Amino acid sequence: MRLVVVFCLIATLCALAFGYYVSQARRHVGADYTALVTDVVRAQQDPAALRITLDSLIDSQDLIHLEQIHDLLWRIPRRIESIQRQLRRSELAPTRYADLVEELTYVASRLPALEAAVDAAAEEGLDEPASEAMLSLGMEVEEGLAWAYSELNEQLHQASAEQRLLMERLTLAVAVLLLLLLLAVGAVMLMLLHLYRQRETMRLQSRTDELTGLSNRRWLREMAEQAFDRWRRHGAPLSLILLDLDHFKRINDDFGHPLGDAVLVAFARALEREVRRIDTVARMGGEEFAILMPDSDMAGAQHLAERILRATRAMPLPGPAADRRLTVSIGVVEVADETGFDRLYSRADQLLYQAKKSGRDRVVSDHDAEDTEWQDHEDDTRG
């Protein structure tokens, strides 16, 4: 579950990062050329204004048009200088605008001559040859500027389109990389989940009896050590029930081991129905089982043992063994002064042996053993 949450968190972060990248890419695509394109568009007004002024000068020969040309001659070289400076700073390859810069440089070199022709026309009059020279130079400057700015504008739009295409491809590449990252993370998560499940399976197998699904001897011992620690610290009662199916070998001999295994599984389920959630039910091996009962004294353990005794008698056997009756012998002990599980188990095993020796299908506890010893002592005394 935690791995799924982590993967979802990583996927969400990747989606947010990609969304932010796309929004920023769209916002800034073409930004390198925006200012330059704006200046070129404004500069394109200069040759247009120069053409209009020259045409107006031819038609009306008004001296005010010479002042307008003076204003343009002051503005045009500054425009050219600004555009050339921005071109050098831009991402545009110099080979793409070299001819245009050369043309603008040539136009800029002709501006002083045009300015001198304008001054001469103002002094000598618009009907003099100076006027014709001014008009010729003006047309030359206008044509050079118009061609250079038009070509430069086209180059910039083309470069902006190429940049947009590049950004789209880069966006696609980033999306693919993020997808691959998510796939890699997902694969790692699946591998970790697989390893985790394998570890849990191995851990479960190390503590579980393969046939019945109950705890095994190893896990019962570990739980017993923990229960003993609580008993030493807090003095809480702790009991152990040891059970052994009576004449189980006959079932295996008469009906085969598969049916015997089915009986063991059925008995295990019967035990699980009778015990508390805090109790540990384990198969010790063969037809021997054990129940570790924390926080339970002898009375509680005996009561559970009696219930199991009755439930076992009433338990139907599967298949061809349906006419047989299953019984169990039980030994019950409560922790007294034991130092560990081995001593407790040994006492329970001795009581279980007494139950078998006494005729099976019965419960023998510490109290029963004490009463039997006392009765034997009385008999010896009377004898």
TrEMBL record:
Cofactor: Mg(2+)
Skewed-composition ranges (Acidic residues): 368-383
SUPFAM superfamilies according to UniProt: Nucleotide cyclase (SSF55073)
Annotated transmembrane regions: 170-196
Keywords: Membrane, Transmembrane, Transmembrane helix
Catalytic activity line of the entry: 2 GTP = 3',3'-c-di-GMP + 2 diphosphate
Domain GGDEF span(s) in chain numbering: 236-368
GO CC term, one of those recorded: plasma membrane
GO biological process: cell adhesion involved in single-species biofilm formation; negative regulation of bacterial-type flagellum-dependent cell motility
Compositional bias segments (type: Basic and acidic residues): 358-367
NCBIfam families: GGDEF
Protein name, entry field: diguanylate cyclase
Organism whose genome encodes this protein: Halomonas daqiaonensis
Upper taxonomic lineage: Bacteria, Pseudomonadati, Pseudomonadota, Gammaproteobacteria, Oceanospirillales
